[in-house]
Amino acid sequence: MTSKDVLPRGRRMITRTVGVSRVIIALAVLALVVMLAGGTDSYTVPRDNDILLADGFFKRMRDLFAERAYEDAFSAGGGGGGGGGGMEMADEAVPQAPVDTSHLDSPPKPKVVEGWPKVEHSFGQVTAVTIDLQGNPVIFHRGSRTWTAESFNESNHYQQIAEGPIVETTIVTLAAADGAVLEERGAGIFYMPHGLTIDRGGNMWLTDVALHQAFKFMPGRDYPSITLGHRFEPGSSRSHLCKPTAVAVASTGEIFVADGYCNSRLLKYNAAGRLIRTIPQPPEFLSLQVPHGLTLLEHLDMVCVADRENMRVVCPRAGLQTSNGEGTQAATIQEPDLGRVFAVAAYGDLVYAVNGPTSPMIPVRGFTIDPRSETIIDHWGPQFENPHAITFCPNGSAMYVTEIGPNRVWKFSLAN
């Protein structure tokens, strides 16, 4: 257990602010070393138009840490309303109970299953992976279509409607044992696939960033039973989506949609598809920038978000059992080596995440995160290039990661 676990909330904020300054200084020194060594021009980041590297990386990191420090001070000062608020009141914050870290002694570490798949595949950009009710991985890919600079105009309208939907099958079920293709479907439906998840009832939830829609397909059906958003119409109203990225479905039937590249918000629906909450909303002090992946920790009543361009994972209250606590400060995991987070998946009390190309000094790899103590507790993975999605088998026997650059699927076993 670290000192962070037992310090009162207000004192933790002061400590974190001091630490932030040290991190910024360290990053500046590293940047200077790189410049003196010949700059960063010699480094080429694998690029895809779905993976747009933000300009001014170090400025962004500095701004983000400053924003995080302000959020903590805001929370510690009672929301900034009267009474002085801010850092002056930090020492008066009510102490929190120490976080139980006994479950973090030996978190499962993913290990690559060598030689899987045993057969070669030729997929398009593999954007998502989930697990069906039989324990087999199901992927969502773009076939011969790619996301380019010409795919959307400045108002986010898709520019290649005339080409029609993707003619190849886009949804592929693979055998967990050897990776052989078990089933293919989804031809002639989608224009630019992105997110995929299968809920406990076997229903398939998919997002298409070109259509600006999210869909629910019941088992064996080729037509959606629920459609969210308007076809080819980007928007920010209650009934519109704009390049939605991911869906997470609770055991209660409630639906969370990450909306997405344009609106940078989460939308929560009831099981019938009626909007019941937008995240963030007042008085929620939370700013998202491209929420790219979602996962639910129902027993903790959290929905964790891969907040991609903010280079962090945030876990606001999901409000599955009660609305009490909605809008309170989200658990936030943001460390200098985290980079741009593309996907998250829950495993018990933990969240496993993968980042993508961010900076030559930040490796592309996997992370094990404890949202309760807001810390990264492990790093793992091979030399990824462009990981885009991650999922676990419900029984915890395996984990899968897909990449959008080399268009491949990794299988991992889990060992302590």
From TrEMBL:
The EC number on file is 4.3.2.5
**Cysteines joined through disulfide linkages:** 242-262, 304-315
Q: Name one GO cellular component term.
A: membrane
- Cofactor requirement: Zn(2+)
| UniProt cofactor note | Binds one Zn(2+) ion per subunit.
GO MF annotation list = metal ion binding; peptidylamidoglycolate lyase activity
Per UniProt, a protein binds at: 142, 261, 308
Q: One Pfam family name from the record? A: NHL
Where along this sequence does the record place binding of Ca(2+)?
Answer: 129, 196
Q: Name one GO biological process term.
A: peptide metabolic process
Protein name, per record: peptidylamidoglycolate lyase
Organism per entry: Anopheles sinensis (Mosquito)
